# Entry
Amino acid sequence: MSSLAWLEAAGLAAFWSAATIGLYVAAKRLNQRLRRWWSSPLVLAPVLLIALLLALHASYRDYIGGTRWLLMLMGPATVAFAVPIYEQRAMIRRFWPVLAMGVAAGSGTSILTAYGLASLLGLNGDLRLSLLPRSLSTPFAMVVSGDIGGVPDLTAVFVICTGVFGAAFGEALLVWLPLRSSLARGALFGMGAHGAGVAKAHQIGAEEGTIAGLVMVMVGLTNVLAAPLLAMALR
Amino acid sequence: MSLHATTILFRRRLHMSRLGQMALMVLFWLAGEALTRATHLPVPGGVLGLGLMLALLFSGRLSVASTRRGAQFFLGELLLFFVPAVLAVTDHPELMGWVGIKIAAVILVGTVTVMAVTALVVEFCCRWSMDRVQPRMA
# Structure
């Protein structure tokens, strides 16, 4: 690569990274005041970025080439979950059988509804397979998607849609369902809406937030371990 | 300075430094990645790193004080790392239109069902185990 091309690539990377971080921070601030589903940093920031991409006639490859390092930070962010898990070890020891039941029921429902509904609406092949792991948090889901023959970057988009829908409708569900235990309220968000759900659960209560975070990690781990079996069943 | 004194000094520094703790988490992740590549395990590197860090925390070799600030940053800004992933839709024009609406419907109905089933199962397990431990007054 000539030095000029290298300079251009570095400039593009710096520009798109700055745009992503800037719009994320702006959306986060706005969301703290408005708290609407559309003001979530996961909705507002991508929508504005897509508008910017279209306005500048830039390509997805330019964008993702410059911001891939942000996606890679999901790795250390996964490691960071060790800290809340360790701090909540007493609660885990006490409640893990109940939570494991919830994770098993939720994962089963998730796979069956995704497969059933997709077939019903005539979505087949890659798309249907990419929809299966959408209840997992992103780093896990992308691995599972690849394992079972889906398209990992499509799965990432579906996972994020799941989080946004789940966080938005979870509160309405809490009104309708006769839930007395904070365990059930936390599991609802951790299983249904992962990252975005955990953030929402923390707003409802500290205990709910902890349970949601824990359930999210449990879901990811069990499903990554079960994925090779699922892949065999689908072939 | 003796080696022991140096480690103590290093630990004290790490307790204060968010950046140092973040670097520590990146190191755990890289170790996990290297391990998955070497062993061909079907687990993401971050998950192995998480396991590694948990093991060190439980064994007492790593104190929570030297990880908490770094973890707070990564977990607090979790959504930022997902933003670039959403832009993948621009690379899939087939999602615009009818197929996209169908997919949104699958995700919406599926998610609400999953949340309801999970919450109800946990709720009934809770009530059942409570009743067994301390029978409710009739």
Chain A touches chain B through 101 residues (CB under 8 Å).
